[in-house]
Amino acid sequence: MRHLKSGRRLGRKTSHREAMFRNMVTSLFAHEKITTTDAKAKEIRSVAEKMITLGKRGDLHSTRIAAAFIREKSVVTKLFSTIAPRYKERAGGYTRIIKVGSRNGDAAPMSIIELVEEEFTPKASRA
Predict the structure, then answer these.
(1) pLDDT digit string, tens, across residues 6-17
(2) Contact (CB, 8 A) for 70 and 25
(3) C-beta of residue 66 within 8 angstroms of C-beta of residue 77
(4) 101 to each of 25, 33, 82, 85, 88, how far by Cα in Å?
(5) To which CATH superfamily is domain 15-115 assigned?
(6) What's the mean pLDDT when you consider all of the chain?
């Protein structure tokens, strides 16, 4: 039974899923915004927020843990030098997920996951 088992499998084996999360988090920090499916965005949110928390700690051990997860050294440097200091006063909630509709082809629900910089003001809805 599946009781109390957290996380989505996303139709992939464990190693494939973990590699995908590493790639997506690396891209998120490199570009500060990526478009992906809702389920993937919800899963990488927790991983990305843990990496930013490591960046806020800023010690050598945190740097090594982040470097073991993030695939590019330049992105690790960016995380510790520019991204983490941006959230020094914020206690969590470093990412935002915005739903953008469905993908052409398979109608998968798509989202944009981005790093929070300032307050989000949604567009006025046409009622």
Answers:
(1) 999 999 999 999
(2) yes
(3) no
(4) 22, 16, 31, 33, 33
(5) Ribosomal protein L17 (3.90.1030.10)
(6) 93
Domain positions in the chain:
15-115
Distance CA 46, CA 88 (A): 18
pLDDT band for position 87 (cuts 50, 70, 90): very high
DSSP for 78-127?
HIIIIIHHHTTT--S--EEEEEEEE-TTT--EEEEEEE--S---PPPP--
3-state class (DSSP) for residue 37: strand
Q: What is the pLDDT of residues 14-51, one digit of tens each?
A: 999 999 999 999 999 999 999 999 999 999 999 999 99
State pTM to two decimals.
Answer: 0.88
Asked if 87 and 56 count as a contact pair (C-beta separation under 8 A), the reply is: yes
Kind plus residue range of the DSSP H or E element containing 1: none
Structure tokens at 87: 């959230």
